[in-house]
Design a protein that fits this description.
single chain; about 150 residues; alpha+beta; Aminopeptidase; about 40% strand; globular
Length: about 150
């Protein structure tokens, strides 16, 4: 699995996939009105030459990034390779990052289990903080430290 930074336009094109867009959207905006912030980092997951998904990173502060995974449904069987790839990418290419956080709505237990399997630690619950298809959900707060990335606990 090759990880490479991609442009906001490439990320936007990938989320034209309705299943993927519905996972990141709260339903209040259409795809046409949605935009990818220019100041965020988008890292593509490539299987050979094919872009199978991307990771959306934005800085919470100078040492912490928020991570959101976006792997196309037809390629989710490669999610473990892609997750290891993004963790390695952050560790090697972003040396000032000491913490990766993720918030996962409780309506996605498969994503939560996947993150835990890859070393993310459960750090609590952000109550009723996410809307999906008109329903409010809690979000799991997960974190992975630089030391945990280095030690391969993921």
């Amino acid at each position: 699995m090759r990880m490479q930074q991609i442009s906001p336009d490439q990320a936007y094109e990938l989320i034209s996939d309705s299943e993927l867009f519905n996972r990141i959207s709260d339903g209040s905006i259409s795809y046409e009105d949605f935009s990818m912030p220019e100041n965020h980092v988008y890292v593509g997951a490539f299987d050979g030459d094919e872009l199978i998904g991307f990771y959306w990173l934005h800085h919470e502060n100078s040492v912490t990034v928020q991570l959101h995974a976006n792997i196309l449904l037809k390629h989710r069987d490669k999610s473990s390779q892609a997750t290891r790839g993004i963790i390695d990418f952050i560790y090697e290419m972003m040396p000032n990052i000491h913490k990766v956080n993720a918030k996962i709505p409780t309506c996605y237990p498969d994503v939560y289990k996947h993150a835990i399997k890859h070393g993310f630690k459960d750090e609590g619950l952000d109550r009723l903080s996410s809307v999906r298809v008109g329903n409010l959900y809690d979000q799991h707060i997960l974190g992975l430290t630089r030391e945990e990335m280095k030690n391969g606990s993921c």
